[in-house]
């Protein structure tokens, strides 16, 4: 039988790790935002050359959102399965 305190501790540790990753991601997104602001002052012909990069960044954001959604749905299912089996 699993010790509930051990489960809580490991869950809390995982939550802390996830929050730490999100904090790092926020820092990276701030850096990207600052870079984008700097790039917005470039001449138009340089910006036109960056359109493919913008599309790729949009794709990365979409994939990131999908992966976060997938993790949340999986976590919800695991919680529901855990409740139904106990």
From TrEMBL:
It holds the Pfam family DASH_Dad3. It is found in: Chromosome, Centromere, Kinetochore; Cytoplasm, Cytoskeleton, Spindle; Nucleus. InterPro entries: DASH_Dad3. GO terms for biological process: attachment of spindle microtubules to kinetochore; cell division. Keywords: Cell cycle, Cell division, Centromere, Chromosome, Chromosome partition, Cytoplasm, Cytoskeleton, Kinetochore, Microtubule, Mitosis, Nucleus. It comes from the Eukaryota. Transmembrane segments: none annotated. GO terms for molecular function: microtubule plus-end binding. The keyword tRNA-binding does not apply. GO terms for cellular component: DASH complex; microtubule; mitotic spindle. The keyword Manganese does not apply. Belongs to the DASH complex DAD3 family. This is DASH complex subunit DAD3.
């Amino acid at each position: 039988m699993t010790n509930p305190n051990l489960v809580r501790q490991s869950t809390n540790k995982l939550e802390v790790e996830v929050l730490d990753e999100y904090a790092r991601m926020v820092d990276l997104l701030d850096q990207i935002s600052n870079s984008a602001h700097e790039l917005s002052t470039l001449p138009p012909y340089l910006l036109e050359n960056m359109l493919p990069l913008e599309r790729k960044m949009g794709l990365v954001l979409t994939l990131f959102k999908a992966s976060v959604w997938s993790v949340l749905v999986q976590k919800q299912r695991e919680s529901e399965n855990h409740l139904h089996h106990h």
